[in-house]
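Inputs:
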Amino acid sequence: MASVDTAVEPSDSAVSEPEIGGVRRRDFINIAAVSFGGVGVVATVFPLVNQMNPSADVLALSSIEVDISAIEEGQAIKTSWRKQPIFIRNLTASEIEAANDVDLSGLRDPESLADRTQPGKENWLITLGVCTHLGCVPLGAAQGEVKGEYDGYFCPCHGSHYDTAGRTRKGPAPTNLEVPEYSFLSDTVVKIG
Amino acid sequence: MSFPWAQQYKPTTEFGQWMDEKLPIGRLIYNSVGAGYPTPRNLNYMWNFGSLAGVFLVVQIVTGIILAMHYAANAAIAFDSVEHIMRDVNSGWMIRYAHANGASFFFIAIYLHIGRGLYYGSYKAPREMIWLLGVVIYLLAMATAFMGYVLPWGQMSFWGAKVITGLFEAIPLVGKPIQELLLGGFAPDNAALNRFFSLHYLLPFVMAGVIILHIWSLHIPGSNNPTGVNVKGPQDTVPFHPFYTAKDGWFLGLALIFFTGMMFFMPNALGHADNYIPANPLSTPAHIVPEWYFWPWYAILRAFTFDFLFVPAKLLGVLAMFSAILVWFFLPWLDKSPVRSGDYRPRFKKFFWFGLIPCIVILGICGGAPAEEPYVMLSQLASAYYFAHFLIILPLLSRIEKPEPLPNSITEAVTGKPLEQAS
């Protein structure tokens, strides 16, 4: 019986082609075509994945300005930045002292209060209100909330305690509360983000 | 089933053998679109549109799933969410334009695919079931495309939804309750938008399921071919892979050039400017037409401007429009000619190229034109011819036409030499 072979064209190996250093023209064409196709696939897939990144309207809200003139010493406010809570705390002199008294070598994430605030504005502690353990919102910013054993913040989810500089002191939180990028536009207005 | 000379699947790796015993998916692919599927050696380019339609369905599903990540199916914000996709989402404009134009390209592919079947008699025995499933796929595609067009909630979306659901109102007695049931209200609103979104997401997957049945039933007799003559032996076929995978692949590249050209350089050419105006239930656009792929059927709908006996014109139009597609379900039994390919049917060929095709083109033009003369009369004439073609001309032709002699085999038709007897 006539086999399938009658229908199959001679394969490339059967075609005598000039070889240059053991490389046939067909090898080059194969590699070039597959590479070009690969570039095309990447160029197509990139926007299909990149569409999941924050869109322009989300990014447009990526910085906020906050008026802090009404925050008295010892008070804190919660505000929202990129859909996440921000704690802005006006530290008292004793809280600043308590934060500066801590031996950095004993901390899980050694940072001084000065590292976490801006020069001349050491009383303004601005952090994300997001526990570094699993993302809950710690207590302690609003009046009457539990502040934890170190008088800073306390996360009720898994019991992380933060001190008056927002540093992790006890519990599962691996790092200090994150300090966002911010700058003082004036004595009373701070721009976050 | 396959031809006895089909190449046999032999897993080359140990893992391949292990898989073949547990879940022979490699074998399934090999026998469906691989070297294990012998395919007529003489397929022309008209045989490329099935796989092309399949690729565009995948494009629609992928871009559609992405759009659904950003779209909000709520009448209050749907329009804004589409603008959000166009302006704010990274590459959102491109993905939406790919989806909008992808629908058109999907319909271009299936119209050419259907036309191929009509000309080469691919609907005839033993391939009736493939054809019937194909008509089901087409109906699902129409429903999906219609509901998708409603989602941006622009003026054309809203009034399209109103007009199409209004068709059901023409049904005597139960029409009004059916329309209210479909809309979940008295006019398109949030309820309709939400269910359209839900179904628009669902139906493409139903289509994919029916397409699997369509291909399954294709693989029993194997592909038809331009001669319409049955495959007689191994010399008439080539393995699907690499021959038709390569041909389909190259043709896909060609189609994608046109597709991306449309998408990037004239993305709104097939759309309607009115759909960039938010839906307004109190003001109908002056010139309301569906998307181009519905124009022929829309022309048939509007062709009925007169009552006939006790049947009102509106009901007649609706019945005619649905019948125009439903008549396809009977096509395998209306055309009794044993010769499949139009190439060997001198009269059918003339009626096809000078009757049916111009008729559908005229219907298309009339469907996109305003409802005024001469388009109304042209639609009426073309509608009459359309039904005459399927219900009178095809049955008659199969009785009186004397077909030209068929080649003895595909190979003989291709090589011009008589078939060498396979030993």
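Chain A has two domains: 4-50, 58-192. Flag for discussion at group meeting.
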